[in-house]
Amino acid sequence: MNIDNTIIYRVLNFGAKSWWASNQLRDMGKHVEARREERRNILSDLETVRSALYIPVSSALATCDSKE
Question: How far apart are alpha carbons 16 and 47 in whole angstroms?
Fold first, then answer.
């Protein structure tokens, strides 16, 4: 599966910008702090996405099967 990096960034950026704390910082006029937090959240989410991409499907299925 090949997903364009731009699409991944757009989704993560949208999620970060819609976060309530980010909106609150922007409402208070703290745009730089809001963007800093958004970037931190994007990097954290991207790390999770990258980790998920490297889990072999057979390993994930075996984990699910062992829980049943």
Answer: 14
Cβ contacts of 45 within 8 Å, gap of 6 or more: 12, 15, 16
pLDDT for the residue numbered 49: 84
The pLDDT confidence band at residue 58, using thresholds 50, 70 and 90, is low
Assigned token pair, 59: 């390993």
Q: What does the alpha-carbon distance between residue 43 and residue 13 come to, in Å, rounded to a whole number?
A: 10
Give one DSSP letter per residue of 7-46, joined into a string: HHHHHHHHHHHTSHHHHHHHHTT-HHHHHHHHHHHHHHHH
Decide if 34 contacts 22 (C-beta within 8 A).
yes
* Helix axis angle, 20-27 to 31-53, nearest 10°: 160
